[in-house]
Design a protein that fits this description.
This protein is mainly beta. The chain contains one helix and eight strands, in the order αββββββββ.
């Protein structure tokens, strides 16, 4: 796992903060500013957007494993706040 983390840091040229949760995500982010999250042991991007104190805060996009857009909008304190949600086929589900 450590080798994988170092490879991600090198590829993306950013500081890597590693964490494990039930969704097996890897997060590449500075504490404040823009960052990205990937599925652990995969190059599948699942989130890109703004962070504040290590939590999603501001504009961002969340993706399904297949790369299609899941949510686009604003986050507040790590939670979806305002935006559009899409189903796996790319159709708008909610605004």
């Amino acid at each position: 796992m450590a080798l994988y983390n170092k490879e991600l840091q090198k590829i993306h040229s950013v500081k890597f903060i590693d964490y494990i949760d039930f969704n097996l995500k890897s997060k590449i982010v500075e504490k404040n500013g823009k960052g990205k999250e990937y599925l652990r042991y995969s190059d599948a991007l699942i989130f890109e957007g703004e962070y504040l104190k290590g939590r999603k805060n501001g504009k961002g996009k969340e993706y399904y494993k297949n790369g299609k857009l899941l949510f686009e909008g604003e986050y507040l304190n790590g939670k979806k706040w305002n935006g559009n949600g899409y189903n796996k086929n790319g159709n708008l589900e909610f605004q």
